[in-house]
Write a structure and sequence with these properties.
The complex is a heterodimer of chains A (753) and B (271). Chain A contains 31 helices and 14 strands. With 753 residues, chain A is of the alpha/beta class. Chain A folds into four domains: 150 residues, D-Maltodextrin-Binding Protein, domain 2, CATH 3.40.190.10; 177 residues, Periplasmic binding protein-like II (D-Maltodextrin-Binding Protein, domain 2), CATH 3.40.190; 98 residues, no CATH class; 232 residues, MetI-like fold, CATH 1.10.3720.10. In chain A, strands 1, 2, 3, 6, 7, 8, 9, 10, 11 and 12 form a ten-stranded mixed beta sheet that branches. In chain A, strands 4-5 form a two-stranded antiparallel sheet. In chain A, helix 8 packs across helix 9. Chain A is globular, with a radius of gyration of 30 Å. The two termini of chain A are 44 Å apart. The two termini of chain B are 31 Å apart. Chain B has one domain: MetI-like (MetI-like fold, Orthogonal Bundle). Chain B has 13 helices and no strands. In chain B, 73% of the residues lie in helices and 0% in strands. The chains are: A alpha/beta (753), B mainly alpha (271). At the A-B interface, helix 3, helix 10, helix 18, helix 19 and helix 21 of A face helix 1, helix 3, helix 4, helix 5 and helix 7 of B.
Chain lengths: 753, 271
């Protein structure tokens, strides 16, 4: 069977159709009509559109790339372009787009060394939203929104009245990954920057420090929350000022028609100094290098990005505007004068640096802002940022030399294939090797078993069947299962293990390099990893025993009920039925500032807490949620075990006059011991891998307080594309869990004796 | 008698209080699925609507997504019950060389974050020609370390007398598993089915990565498209989707929970 399987492996992959694949994020009702029209006008070209979702779309792109299976055409976030272009993942479409230079915006995001690698499609920016009513109430002129930092600060201070639930300004917090979009406009407007003209890190400057100081002052009159909660608070008239995006125009007028709000350009440092600028970002259309028909694909993206084909998206979702400036004469932008503010701001807005390491730099900037917001001294944080950048630079330089070595004539044993055959690489080596070894081991095993049974050695003393029969039986029982296990679980496991000893980048699946223990050594000095490890340890220690004990207690209580036990069983089990992502989303509302938890606490006089934004509360909040969800689940397992305890044991104990407690410790606990072993082990394994809750609720924030191992690993693999490094983390985790599980089983075994 | 009554009432009261906290998110989910999105995420809505259900169930692809999910779940369930019983039995009762290593290897697949296995698995699927087919969502999940571990633990705890008696009567090993071990393991099998169903039915990231076309899309992946926007979650659609997709699981739980409880008490288990 294995041989057959190997044969199957040789004829790799299904031949792809002649269609060009196009991955995008939008509702297909916007895309399909455009494709239809395009296909009509260009007979012979077929485009197949696949919708990605915003939550996991980029994971899919990264994984596809790592397999050398990127789509022909792809919609990409503009801030990702620096990396994609530097890695050579995209096709140069300079000649196909040269005539659009004047007409379209945001070329800086798709240009590298003078070459163009994408067509700007959608652009968006942030502006200052102000509540006219609150301005008026504070004695300010609603027709003159703040234009300078000082005015912004003064207005926020005047409107700020937390006792009555009104806040001067809405400041992003608890979402580390978007902080820079709100903060950098102040730095940029003040003359500061992230990288200087030579590409050196120049974030720490008087201009930045001044902006930081201003921002922290503003924080005193701010409501600190996540973006969606800020938008909501503004909608409910509880925020005087907020920096937000055009998507609110799709909701505010419909949901809150009475809300009297205006928008203005982001304030500049002072009347006589600095400029008003904002964050510019958006979506671009790019062709991956393996695009099968670049000429047709380029024609298609040009067609799709035109004003008339893009405006429907803008009109409905109002998230972003066409990059095609021809669109701006559309009545849509003139019906509401506030739209013109966006148009003006887009023209002055700045795109973050388009460099290979932007995603990593973004993290450094975000961490700097976040740390300062959470009270760390600016001097220390900025120094730290500089250090982190230096480390990053070093790593990048090293990687670059490795890549140059690797691409140059395929020197070194490490390089198996050239870039032209991205699909092969490591796979071709590991795949046959793994299965060859598997077949070998299996044959040796068979021989061993046969020899043992032939010599009449008993494998089991308990049953009376002959040893030969028994070994054959075992094999018969195991074989189909074993085969599936071997192919779909053990092979990927072994592959990741090998990966953990390689430097392997999702962008260059063919260019892996054996790095020895390099990844593991790097882990030792990685402070973020250490923090993630500690966070996870806290999580495991806090959840596992509590969940298990509570599950047992609940099971005992439910079991002791004479009536209604079925009802309670269901009630406690229900939460485990919903996917954890949905549960976590529901808990977002439980933990919201005006959520049920804070309302209940208000009844007993406890002030409202920002559960997921406070760095001391976020982890406990997630721990409580996790315990809450899984207690019911393990309760059902315990119930199954409790029901299997023979009733005679209790009857006999009753006759002997044993108390309830004695019965529990001497009958129940030993009788369900096997289930406790199972629950503890499984629970520990799962808790070490906590991810979905973190990803949905906090993404590791605030200030890294909920960054767990798997979340950290996920970011490393899919955000920073370091698959080898992420694999090393996975195996450290594996060893840790293994250690804990062994310890647990030993302890349980000891307890039994 | 009296203390017993108070004990029962006290338990009942405690469980009711706890039960309410467990019901709240459910009620919230169902309530939000019928409400307009207007008042944001933390407040009750004004006015009921079937908009989200219409959007989901009325979608042309919905029957297909549902069918795909059901096919995948059915095959995976059957395979898991059969595999876990047989292999769990082998692990619990037989001694064979390499058993310990194999067992810990199986546990290791539970201990490694699945995110790490995605890249090699996707490559494998492509090479096997399974990419973008339902097989990619079925085959790897026919083997589950959790289920195997559960069955092994459970069968180990069963008295072996009945098996030995059947063996003495000349029953084959498969017959023993089917006629002796399986009936006694009903509670564990019920737990296994419910657990597998929850994991598989809600499975999101693997179907997302292993499939492309709408014809093999499963329900959770399809629902994610309804509920996610670039800057905010569409709460109504998300909650309606979750409500719709949890319905089959609730039915399954109701069907099997009796097995968990009644399986053994009615069985002839005398130690």
């Amino acid at each position: 069977m294995l041989v057959l399987f190997l044969l199957m492996l040789v004829c790799t992959g299904a031949g792809a159709g002649e269609e060009l694949t196009f991955w995008n994020f939008w509702d297909q009702k916007f895309i399909l009509p455009v494709i239809e029209q395009f296909e009509r006008e260009n007979p012979g070209i077929k485009i197949r559109s696949e919708q990605m979702n915003w939550g996991n779309g980029f994971d899919k792109v990264v994984i596809a790339m790592a397999n050398g299976r990127a789509p022909d055409i792809c919609e990409l976030g503009s801030t990702w372009m620096g990396r994609f272009m530097a890695e050579g993942a995209l096709l140069d479409i300079s000649s196909q787009t040269a005539d659009l230079k004047q007409q379209y915006l945001m070329w800086e995001a798709v240009t590298s060394n003078g070459q163009v690698f994408g067509l700007p499609w959608l652009v968006s920016t942030r502006v200052l939203f102000y509540n006219r009513q609150l301005l008026r109430k504070a004695g300010l002129n609603p027709d003159e929104p703040p234009r300078t930092w000082a005015e912004l600060l003064a207005a926020a201070r005047l409107m700020h009245d937390p006792k009555s639930g009104i806040y001067g300004f809405g400041m992003n917090a608890g979402e580390g990954h978007i902080l820079y979009k709100k903060f950098m406009p102040f730095v940029w407007g003040n003359g500061g920057r992230i990288l200087d003209t030579e590409g050196r890190f120049a974030f720490d400057s008087p201009a930045t420090r001044e902006a930081l100081e201003f921002y922290l002052q503003l924080k005193d009159f701010s409501y600190c929350e996540k973006q969606d909660l800020l938008d909501e608070a503004f909608k409910l008239g509880r925020l005087g000022l907020a920096i937000s995006g055009s998507w609110n125009f799709a909701r505010y007028p419909v949901d809150a028609p009475q809300l009297d709000f205006g928008v203005a350009m982001i304030p500049r440092p002072a009347e006589d100094r600095g400029v008003s600028t904002s964050f510019l970002g958006g979506q671009v259309l790019a062709l991956f290098k393996n695009c099968r028909n670049p000429e047709a694909a380029a024609r298609f993206i040009r067609f799709l990005a035109t004003a008339s084909n893009t405006l429907p998206i803008t009109r409905e979702a109002m998230v972003s505007f066409p990059a095609d400036q021809l669109a701006w004469s559309d009545p849509f932008f003139h019906a509401d004068p506030r739209m013109q503010v966006f148009v003006r701001q887009i023209k002055t807005a700045r795109h973050p640096p388009v460099v290979a390491a932007w995603v990593e730099i973004e993290k450094i900037i975000n961490e700097t802002i976040e740390n300062c917001m959470y009270g760390a001294p600016a001097d220390k944080v900025l120094l730290e940022a500089g250090k982190k950048y230096a480390e990053l630079e070093q790593r990048l330089a090293k990687k670059q030399t490795e890549q140059v070595q690797a691409t140059g004539l395929g020197v070194g044993r490490a390089v198996l294939t050239s870039e032209s055959s991205e699909r092969s690489g490591l796979w071709l080596l590991v795949l046959p090797a793994f299965f060859a070894v598997a077949i070998l081991l299996f044959s040796v095993y068979l021989l061993y078993v046969n020899r043992n049974t032939a010599s009449g050695q008993s494998l089991s003393s308990a049953c009376k069947a002959s040893p030969i029969e028994r070994s054959q039986r075992t094999l018969l029982f195991l074989s189909p299962w074993l085969l599936t296990f071997l192919i779909f679980w053990l092979y990927p496991l072994v592959f990741s293990l090998i990966l953990s000893f390689c430097s392997y980048d999702a962008f260059h699946p063919a260019l892996f390099k054996f790095a020895g223990l390099q990844n593991y050594v790097r882990l030792l000095g990685d402070q973020d990893f250490a923090r993630a490890f500690l966070n996870t340890l806290i999580f495991v220690v806090a959840t596992t025993p509590v969940t298990t004990a509570l599950a047992l207690a609940l099971a005992l209580l439910v079991n002791s009920l004479k009536r209604g036990s079925q009802f309670f069983r269901s009630v406690f089990f229900l939460p485990s039925i919903i996917s954890i992502v949905v549960t976590a989303t529901i808990f977002k509302s439980v933990y919201a500032p005006v959520g049920i938890l804070n309302r209940l606490l208000a009844v007993v006089g406890v002030p409202a807490q920002a559960w997921l934004v406070d760095s001391d509360l976020a982890m406990p909040a997630i721990i409580v949620m996790n315990i809450w969800v899984y207690t019911g689940y393990y309760m059902v397992l315990y119930l199954a075990a409790l029901k299997a305890v023979p009733g005679e044991l209790y009857e006999a104990a009753d006759v002997d006059g044993a108390s309830d407690w004695q019965q529990f410790f001497h009958i129940t606990l030993p009788q369900i011991r096997y289930m406790t072993v199972f629950i503890l082990t499984v629970n520990t394994i799962r808790n070490w891998q906590v991810f979905a809750e973190i990803f949905t609720l906090t993404r590791g924030g605030p200030v890294g307080s909920t960054d767990t191992l798997v979340h950290h690993l996920y970011e490393t693999a899919f955000r920073y594309h370091e698959m080898g490094y992420a694999s090393a983390m996975a195996f450290v985790l594996l060893v840790v869990i293994l250690f804990f599980s062994l310890l647990q089983m030993r302890a349980m075994q000891a307890a039994r004796q | 008698m009296k203390t017993r009554f108070w004990k029962q009432s006290g338990t009942m009261a405690l469980l009711t209080a706890l039960g309410l906290s467990y019901l709240y998110p459910w009620l919230y989910m169902v309530a939000r699925s019928f409400m307009h999105n207007e008042p944001g995420m933390s407040d009750g809505g004004n006015g009921l609507t079937l908009e989200f259900y219409r959007q989901i169930i009325g979608n042309a692809g919905f029957p297909g997504f549902l069918l795909n999910s059901m096919i995948v779940l059915t095959v995976v369930l059957v395979a898991n019950v059969v595999f876990s019983l047989l292999v769990g039995y082998a692990f619990a009762r037989y001694r064979f060389p390499g058993k310990k290593i194999l067992f810990w290897l199986i546990l290791a697949t539970l201990m490694i974050p699945r995110q790490t296995l995605m890249v090699p698995l996707l490559d494998l699927m492509v090479r096997l020609g399974l990419y973008d087919t339902l097989w990619a969502l079925i085959l790897p999940f026919c083997v589950d370390g959790f289920n195997l571990f559960l069955m092994k633990q459970f069968i180990e705890n069963l008295p072996a007398d009945l098996e030995d008696a059947a063996r003495a009567d000349g029953a084959g090993e498969f017959a023993i598993v089917w006629h002796v071990v399986a009936p006694l393991s009903r509670p564990a099998i019920a737990v296994l089915i419910i657990n597998t169903a929850i994991v598989n039915w809600n499975s999101f990231i693997f179907p997302l990565i292993f499939t492309d076309t709408a014809s093999v899309r499963t329900l959770p992946v399809a629902l994610a498209y309804f509920a996610q926007g670039p800057h905010a979650t569409d709460w109504g659609a998300l909650m309606a989707g979750a409500s719709v997709s949890s319905l089959p699981l609730i039915i399954l739980f109701w069907l099997f929970q009796k097995q968990i409880i009644e399986g053994i008490t009615s069985g002839a288990l005398k130690d």
